[in-house]
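hey so i finaly got around to running the thing on DNA replication complex GINS protein PSF2 from Hypsizygus marmoreus. pasting the sequence first so u can double check i didnt mess up the copy paste, my clipboard has been acting weird all day
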Amino acid sequence: MALPESLRVSITPPELELISSQQLVEIIPLISMERTAFISGAYGPLRPPNKAKIPIWMALNLKSKKKCHIVAPSWLNVDYLQDRLNRELAEPGFSELPFRFTEISKVLLDVASDDLENPDKIRSLLKDLREARQAKSREGLKELDHSDLNLPNLCSMEINEIRPFFVQAMALMTQLVRQPATSPQSAFE
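ok and heres what it spat out for the 3d tokens, dont ask me to read them lol
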């Protein structure tokens, strides 16, 4: 959702991608490596052709050096995304997706699209899914209620996009509710 510059005070998409890079992903290493300790934890050992779970940041580094293949998460495939898109279009609520699906899918499609099956179709489905979810977000914001907020299954990027608008709208609605109502007679006195 494109917001005016004045409302963009949230975390930027690249910052969200950085945060999501801590998520673990499976790889098939092409090199051997002993267990290695990092600030975020110890990972390994890597022994081809056995799969290993490592953070996305490490997988991207190894992938860029052609030292591993990244195994796509179970949700990053055409069948799953098509099912979610169908649900998104058919049901009033948001379909359940991984919290950081937007950031993870972007990073993996940018760096490891050769490890994904049918990346162009996945990109297309993700775009359609995003547009359908944005339309629901816009409709939901039209019916904003200051006393109740219930937006289950929103992902981090979607929350980040609507947060600035939502915070300002809730502040205005709270002010309107707190202002004493003036009676018609006192308005003319």
